[in-house]
Specification:
homodimer; about 300 residues; globular
Chain lengths: ~300, ~300
Amino acid sequence: MIQKLIENIKKTNAPIVVGLDPMLAYIPEHIKKAAFAEYGETLEGAAEAVWQYNKKIVDAVYDLIPAVKPQIAMYEQFGIPGLIAFQKTIDYCHEKGLVVIGDVKRGDIGSTSAAYATAHLGRVQVGSQQLTPFGEDFATVNPYLGTDGIRPFLDVCREEKKGIFVLVKTSNPSSGEFQDRLAADADGTRPLYELVGEKVAEWADSCMGETYSYVGAVVGATYPEMGKTLRRVMPKCFILVPGYGAQGGKAADLAPFFNEDGLGAIVNSSRGIIAAYKQEKYASFGAEHFPEASRAAVTDMIEDINKALERR
Amino acid sequence: MIQKLIENIKKTNAPIVVGLDPMLAYIPEHIKKAAFAEYGETLEGAAEAVWQYNKKIVDAVYDLIPAVKPQIAMYEQFGIPGLIAFQKTIDYCHEKGLVVIGDVKRGDIGSTSAAYATAHLGRVQVGSQQLTPFGEDFATVNPYLGTDGIRPFLDVCREEKKGIFVLVKTSNPSSGEFQDRLAADADGTRPLYELVGEKVAEWADSCMGETYSYVGAVVGATYPEMGKTLRRVMPKCFILVPGYGAQGGKAADLAPFFNEDGLGAIVNSSRGIIAAYKQEKYASFGAEHFPEASRAAVTDMIEDINKALERR
């Protein structure tokens, strides 16, 4: 899947990913009204609104982008019906040729971690059958439990040629509370995120595609200096970069996340794309034409990032 | 819910929790055969086997225990049908008066973390309705992203009187890779798990029940010395202790996790209870009588732990 991701990035000339993180507050009234008319103000009604909203956005932008990143929490909050909408979204994006990064941030140990890897990237054995549960192409993974938690994902990645992005330095203001702690060992003192990055690089070496590894990392756009260090620590890893746009990350900050080959990073925007029609800049589209607003926002984002990359 | 947990522990005199972590390999053939006959070798068939297995175990042990801890990964690996079995298990355990700890180890930031908190502990607003998604009483949470990731859970805990257990020191062999790193700050040098423990104690102070906080911690039975330190660092927190039994934790190691009042810890066993019939000790029950084997294993576990607590 890392090859498919790279192909898609080259084809679209767009190192970006659209975060499909629908909140009911983003969804235009006419979509919600239709969904509630059919299913009532129920979890099913909310899930239907989410699915219709996603579908229209995907229809409007799929030819411009390599990948999408549905955030499972936004679906999980609507219980089982919400997760059915998550599944439909994955399947629909696959039909459209998109790489699907499941932003699930799972992390556990041993057989439990293996079960998560199976759920999102693998196949499960039921009697004589091998069945696909959710079937994303990549999943985000939390490293707090150490190698025991990651190894089962690596096994599935090798078998299925799928990938993971391990949280290294997250984009939020308090990410430093633990991730920036100066940790001492025989090699001296360095921040925890750097130690995690070194482990990610090790894991990545054991799961190589042609030029990049199946194992990538998450590093927030809001920390470009750390991004520079981590780019060096994990040369074979794709970096998934959240925090552009709504969270304050600027295109000029993104250059350090990329390698010399122009690859190695993929920048996420969620709200900035899917709720573009709510921004002043795209307000003239109106709520009825929210998909066109999203398309315009994608075009602008690609131009913004490519310009910043040319300038470096 | 921390009050209900304490009441249930006092009523049963059993500071334990049964981990409902079903793997198909644990489920007796006759259960699987019946499920596959009805639904085929499908995700639905697997989920039906899981649900029937859980139901029989819960029926056999519910009067002896205060709480259960379904591990969502084991359900998620069967996709949507698996998660429906997870939901049915939660609802059934509630009918039986049990406290339900959703072992979900979720962790994200801001609105995403809020969505996870809503999914597992809260209610979601859909139009004019407030609806309950999964509805567990407690959830396990990963701290790697810092306070930004925890605060939304605290808000929901206060509103719903529910609780969380934050991962501090996990039971697995490689948990030390990051959790044991010596971190330096103005107060000197101490391991990361202790810093995380200090943060958990702060969060706990802001979410107090009568004597204990809604905010607890996960500390593995396999690290009793660290348990002793963390007990001191987080005096108002219940500690959820995995790793007893199958992972090597002994009853004698458990005393440091409890407070003087005999409360403050709840010890989990999963495989050791739900697959008891596969152990030599309980093999005479046979696969047909697996629920009775589980009941015997629960009785033995309670006796084992209470003896160790009396000896201290």
